[in-house]
Write a structure and sequence with these properties.
This protein is of the alpha/beta class. The chain has 2 domains: 143 residues, HAD superfamily/HAD-like (Rossmann fold, 3-Layer(aba) Sandwich), CATH 3.40.50; 90 residues, Hypothetical Protein, Haloacid Dehalogenase-like Hydrolase, Chain: A, domain 2 (2-Layer Sandwich), CATH 3.30.1240.10. Helix content is 26%, strand content 21%. It is built from 8 helices and 13 strands. It has an 8-stranded mixed beta sheet. It has a 5-stranded antiparallel beta sheet with strand order 7-6-8-10-9. Strand 11, helix 6 and strand 12 form a beta-alpha-beta unit. Helix 1 packs parallel to helix 8.
């Protein structure tokens, strides 16, 4: 088999340590080493471009971006290759129903926007991310690619077959348009053989479609079973996975 040079990395829980909410020194070291040895490195995340941590964006010159679970795909210069947004009337209707039910939503467009008052689930998720909770803002027809539902009540989605969701590690789900996922986003880059690294259910399709794949220590069992290898330690995870795949000389 030819050497695979395209590598896709999830962000939260993969590049960012889920136990410290920081980037391990070993992770930065191994990503830079891969880039120096000629690998093409891409971000593949549920986050929008504007919500990426500066430390992630500035780590290396990324070769492309699969964002919002595949609904936004950008080239190395952050120019659009493929962009699909949720229609504004649909988003407005969902927000109104969610607020009536006391369900909190966070919109993911160019950046994040919390369009519901704070509740326990909102505070829990932002605490898990080690970030300050965003202020509540009203929806003003903002461009929205995907959104998050905080808490464990996703019943509102039963009314919308055009949407699907993937559970996160904390009290939220990522909601996207049906037919989109990270693997679909990668297809927009015309890349067939690649190696994927991920930790959560929104990585499942990418992990399954990859030529080789690796999942993290705290990944759900279904993701580990779909991966070529999975981490058996919570120390220097990404570096250990890269070494086990024999990617570095």
């Amino acid at each position: 088999m030819a050497v695979i040079k395209d590598l896709f990395f999830d962000v939260d829980g993969t590049l960012v340590n889920p136990r410290t909410n920081e980037i391990d020194e070993s992770t930065t070291r191994v990503i830079k080493a891969l880039k120096e040895q000629g690998y093409r490195c891409y971000l593949s995340t549920g986050r929008s471009l504007g919500s990426l941590q500066p430390e992630i964006k500035d780590m290396i010159s990324w070769d492309g971006f699969v964002l919002n679970n595949g609904q936004v795909v950008l080239d190395p210069f952050e120019q659009p290759i493929s962009v699909t947004e949720i229609e504004k009337p649909l988003m407005k209707e969902i927000i109104e129903k969610a607020n009536d039910l006391g369900i909190a939503l966070l919109l993911q467009g160019q950046s994040w926007k919390l369009v519901s008052p704070h509740n326990t689930a909102v505070l829990e998720v932002f605490s898990k991310l080690n970030e300050e909770p965003l202020p509540y803002e009203k929806y003003n027809g903002d461009v929205t690619y995907t959104f998050m539902i905080f808490g464990h009540d996703y019943s509102i989605l039963e009314e919308y077959p055009q949407l699907r969701y993937a559970k996160g590690h904390s009290s939220y789900v990522d909601v996207m348009l049906d037919g989109f996922n990270k693997a679909v986003g990668i297809e927009k880059l015309n890349i067939q053989d690649y190696i994927a690294f991920g930790d959560s259910m929104n990585d499942l399709e990418m992990i399954k479609a990859a030529t080789l794949s690796a999942s993290m220590y705290e990944s759900p069992m279904v993701l580990k079973e779909a991966s070529t290898i999975h981490s058996t330690t919570n120390q220097d995870e990404l570096e250990q996975l890269v070494l086990r795949l024999q990617l570095l000389k």
